[in-house]
């Protein structure tokens, strides 16, 4: 493709609103442009890279027997109401009304649509298992779109759905999809981890996220320093054991703590370490109120609270409800003399404590010398805190370390969550109606593109992996006004095209410095420069990622490029 005919607007400086490298470089190199907050156009060179990722995804999906289709982006609210997600999905779901005031959602995901389709078309076990996928734009009303393609309101996604006649069959499909995803991200050249995750609003139980390791990732991965164990920090269980304190319990005492709001404030005021205090938080868990108690130096993991109750919704209680139930605000809450309508659950670490402090449920007062079991009762002890670096790895091998990750893929075992609610059944081999067993699998295609840039760049621009780059060769004619350079560059361009090599030909009438700077920005793996030795048929070949360069005769170029890409 001749660069002089293309829309590739490059920038010398980083955009003011671009905080991370992928956002900066994709805009500067003319791959994307923002049209509104969190909404981007892919310009021609960006579309080429996006298609490379799409093609890898398609190939791996088809290898495991998944079939591509396309579903509407406009989804009737009635389908979402069948599963209850019209209300539980939250404010990220973009809702619109047509001229007849019928409610629709812009597709954030397609579980309801595909379940509706399959329940009408698939009737027998002989038609199962079935796996379909699509690559389509999705819409989510992010409260704070940021980081370019990593958190947008419109994005390109591959979503796949499987329908099985048994959980054993679902396990087989899940394993195939897991391996296909691993292949996709390996082929994209990414350093990633598959981690145990929470299903969130998707429903279902077993699920893994595929995380690209990156300091700009918004998710924290807990991983073992000696094994392959990895989990989203929300899902990593704490297996640490706690020895019961040998202190003799004392008589609790109510003390004034004026102006002390945080755990650290109270600990410093009372003269003890954070782990000698109790942190008490009031949550609304579906329709009930639950006080969650942890050690003062630990953080409550609300996903674990949700799992204890198998709840659909967990959120901190409002200040109004907190004062109504307990008579005080957040800074003085404690588990002593809690109303019967409030459950008290505590983290395992609390059970071993003796003579600790806690809020007195009275503004500006705390209790000291409090011992669980003596001074208050706990409904249930459970693992309720976030895992910490240095904790034992849940698989029994090594200790936990943290890394940040960008989520690029997610696989779910949905089970009967959707099919039961939407009455998606089939007749088994005995003619009895059974509920279909489902799986759901997503890859953020546009997000994957950005994640690749986060791992493949230097101070001059992008350094694409070989099979993801928009072109295989960037051909530069240094001075098209000189006939020998123009003629040789034109000949090489045609020769490369005839050989089936993807080439971007910079035939612009620009200064050499501009052409080199743009080439570095684009990140095409191999650059061929036609310059002063054109009359001899000699060109310079340079590898973008290593900086290695050599001089070649015109006749050697095709073999060099083909060998380089197959090595």
**Whole-Å distance between the termini?**
25 Å
Average residue-wise pLDDT: 95
* CATH H level, superfamily name of the largest domain: Bira Bifunctional Protein, Domain 2
The CATH top-level class label of the largest domain: Alpha Beta
Q: What is the CATH fold-level name of the largest domain?
A: BirA Bifunctional Protein, domain 2
**Count of helices?**
14
How is the topology of this model organized?
Elements: H1 21-28, E1 32-36, E2 39-42, H2 44-63, E3 67-68, E4 74-76, H3 77-83, H4 85-88, E5 95-97, E6 103-106, H5 111-121, E7 130-139, E8 154-164, H6 167-187, E9 192-196, E10 207-213, E11 219-224, E12 230-232, E13 253-256, H7 263-270, E14 278-285, E15 288-295, H8 302-309, E16 314-316, H9 319-326, E17 342-347, E18 356-359, E19 365-370, E20 380-382, E21 400-415, H10 417-421, E22 425-427, E23 433-435, E24 437-444, H11 445-455, E25 457-458, E26 461-462, E27 473-477, H12 483-498, E28 503-506, H13 512-522, E29 526-530, E30 538-543, E31 549-553, H14 557-566
Parallel strand pairs: 3-7, 15-17, 17-20, 27-28, 27-29
Antiparallel strand pairs: 1-2, 4-6, 5-6, 7-8, 8-24, 9-10, 10-21, 11-12, 11-21, 13-19, 14-15, 14-16, 18-19, 21-24, 22-23, 25-26, 29-30, 30-31
């Amino acid at each position: 493709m001749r660069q002089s005919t293309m829309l590739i607007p490059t920038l010398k400086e980083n955009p003011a609103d671009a905080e991370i490298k992928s956002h900066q470089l994709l805009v500067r190199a003319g791959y994307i442009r923002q049209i509104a907050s969190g909404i981007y156009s892919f310009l021609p060179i960006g579309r080429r890279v996006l298609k490379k990722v799409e093609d890898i995804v398609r190939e791996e999906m088809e290898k495991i027997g998944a079939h591509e289709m396309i579903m509407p982006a406009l989804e009737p609210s009635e389908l979402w109401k069948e599963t209850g997600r019209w209300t539980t999905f939250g404010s990220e779901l973009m809702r619109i009304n047509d001229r007849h005031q019928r409610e629709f959602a812009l597709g954030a995901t397609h579980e309801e649509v595909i379940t509706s389709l399959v329940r009408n078309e698939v009737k027998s076990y002989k038609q199962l298992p079935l796996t379909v996928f699509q690559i389509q734009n999705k819409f989510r009303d992010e409260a704070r779109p940021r980081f370019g393609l990593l958190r947008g309101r419109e994005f390109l996604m591959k979503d796949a759905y499987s329908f099985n006649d048994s959980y054993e069959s679902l396990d087989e499909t899940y394993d195939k999809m897991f391996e296909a995803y691993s292949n996709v991200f390996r082929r994209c050249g990414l350093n990633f981890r598959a981690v145990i995750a929470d299903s969130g609003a998707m429903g279902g139980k077993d699920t893994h996220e595929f995380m690209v390791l990156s300091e700009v990732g918004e998710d924290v991965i807990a991983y073992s320093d000696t094994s392959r164990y990895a989990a989203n920090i929300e899902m990593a269980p704490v297996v640490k054991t706690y020895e019961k304190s040998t202190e003799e319990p004392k008589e609790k005492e109510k003390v004034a703590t004026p102006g002390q709001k945080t755990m650290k404030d109270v600990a410093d005021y009372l003269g003890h370490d954070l782990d000698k205090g109790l942190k008490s938080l009031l949550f609304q868990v579906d329709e009930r109120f639950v006080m969650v108690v942890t050690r003062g130096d630990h953080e409550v993991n609300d996903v674990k609270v949700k799992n204890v109750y198998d709840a659909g919704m967990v959120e901190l209680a409002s200040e109004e409800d907190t004062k109504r139930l307990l008579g005080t605000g957040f800074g003085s809450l404690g588990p002593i003399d809690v109303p019967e309508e409030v459950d008290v659950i505590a983290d395992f670490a609390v059970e071993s404590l003796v003579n600790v402090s806690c809020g007195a449920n009275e503004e500006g007062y705390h209790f000291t010398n409090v011992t669980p079991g003596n001074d208050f009762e706990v409904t249930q002890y459970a693992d309720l805190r976030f895992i910490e670096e240095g904790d034992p790895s849940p698989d029994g091998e090594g200790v936990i370390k943290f890394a940040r990750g960008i989520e690029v893929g997610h696989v779910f075992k949905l089970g009967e969550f959707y099919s039961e609610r939407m009455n998606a059944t089939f007749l088994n081999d005995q003619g009895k109606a059974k509920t279909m067993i489902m799986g759901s699998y997503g890859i953020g295609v546009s997000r994957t593109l950005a994640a690749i840039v986060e791992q493949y760049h230097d101070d001059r621009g992008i350094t694409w992996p070989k099979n993801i780059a928009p072109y295989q060769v960037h051909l530069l004619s240094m001075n098209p006004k000189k006939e020998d350079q123009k003629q040789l560059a034109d000949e090489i361009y045609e020769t490369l095209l005839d050989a089936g090599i993807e080439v971007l030909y910079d035939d612009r009438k620009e200064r050499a410095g501009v052409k080199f700077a743009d080439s570095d920005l684009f990140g095409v793996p191999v650059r061929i420069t036609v310059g002063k030795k054109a009359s001899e048929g000699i060109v310079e070949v340079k590898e973008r990622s290593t900086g290695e360069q050599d001089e070649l005769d015109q006749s050697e170029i095709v073999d060099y490029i083909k060998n380089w890409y197959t090595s």
